[in-house]
């Protein structure tokens, strides 16, 4: 199932997307998408609604340096255990919403990533049971103020600006995340070309590790790390991140 959050003629709702291309339809879900969805009977052509961020998490937990070549491109070693940091919920935006680049922070980079969406409250879940805690997967962009990341040491400010976590276009509940192609483009030029099979710490391990630290709530998001090839984005550009089977997340860049 592909789960989305949409703005439709009567308001905002969760929905299931059926079909592809010009024939795609969205079916409104009552209340929330967790568990067995209940449908209201309302439906619209996908072209007649606006896709929003597919989920509004209580927290976004991100994993740093989880691809060895990305760590190497900045002269870093891969940590022996997952390196965690938090992005505030206010960083989250949806497809086609602008990444608002602060004009006084120097270099700002895109980072294409696979995102894990949690489906139920979990604490201390073992890797062998991690799949039962996962609602599905979506595409993410871990936007980063690179100069601040370097100067601050801690990454909260560099990663935490409003709009610095685009998510979308929807959540796929059935895809196998173990070996998916991930590509990032800026104004149509290929910048990143990786595979999720190159993750150092795999998805089940990450869910286990994070849930040892903090309780994960339905809708929480884990960003799994980015492949090599990250780079700067500036006002007027457009960033598109594609993960096979999950679709393409596109956002324009605007300076504040």
From TrEMBL:
Domain Fumarylacetoacetase-like C-terminal: from-to ranges: 59-254
Protein EC: 3.7.-.-
Span of domain Rv2993c-like N-terminal: 1-54
EC main group: hydrolase
Superkingdom: Bacteria
Record GO terms (molecular function): hydrolase activity
Keyword Hydrolase: yes
Alphabetic keyword roster: Hydrolase, Metal-binding
TM region positions: none
InterPro entries documented for this protein: Fumarylacetoacetase-like_C, Fumarylacetoacetase_C_sf, Rv2993c-like_N
Keyword flag Hydrolase: yes
Stated name of the protein: Fumarylacetoacetate hydrolase family protein
Provenance organism: Amycolatopsis halotolerans
């Amino acid at each position: 199932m592909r789960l989305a959050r949409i703005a439709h003629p009567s308001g905002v709702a969760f929905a299931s997307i059926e079909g592809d291309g010009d024939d795609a339809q969205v079916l409104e879900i009552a209340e929330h998408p967790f568990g067995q969805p209940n449908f209201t009977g309302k439906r619209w052509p996908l072209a007649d609604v606006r896709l929003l961020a597919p989920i509004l998490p209580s927290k976004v937990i991100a994993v740093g340096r989880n691809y060895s070549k990305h760590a190497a491109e900045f002269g870093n070693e891969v940590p022996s255990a997952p390196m965690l940091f938090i992005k505030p919920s206010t960083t989250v935006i949806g497809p086609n919403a602008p990444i608002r680049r602060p004009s006084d922070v120097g270099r700002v980079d895109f980072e294409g990533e696979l995102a894990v969406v949690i489906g139920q409250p979990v604490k201390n879940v073992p890797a062998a049971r991690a799949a039962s805690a996962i609602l599905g997967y979506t595409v993410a962009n871990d936007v980063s103020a690179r100069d601040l990341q370097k100067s601050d040491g801690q990454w909260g400010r560099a990663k935490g600006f409003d709009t610095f976590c685009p998510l979308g276009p929807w959540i796929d509940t059935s895809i196998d995340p173990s070996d998916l192609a991930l590509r990032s483009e800026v104004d149509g030029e290929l910048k990143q070309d990786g595979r999720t099979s190159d993750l150092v710490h795999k998805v089940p391990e990450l869910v286990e590790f994070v849930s040892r630290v903090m309780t994960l709530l339905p809708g929480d998001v884990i960003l799994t790390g980015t492949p090599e090839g990250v780079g700067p984005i500036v006002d007027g550009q457009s960033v598109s991140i594609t993960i096979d089977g999950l679709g393409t997340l596109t956002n324009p860049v605007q300076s504040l």
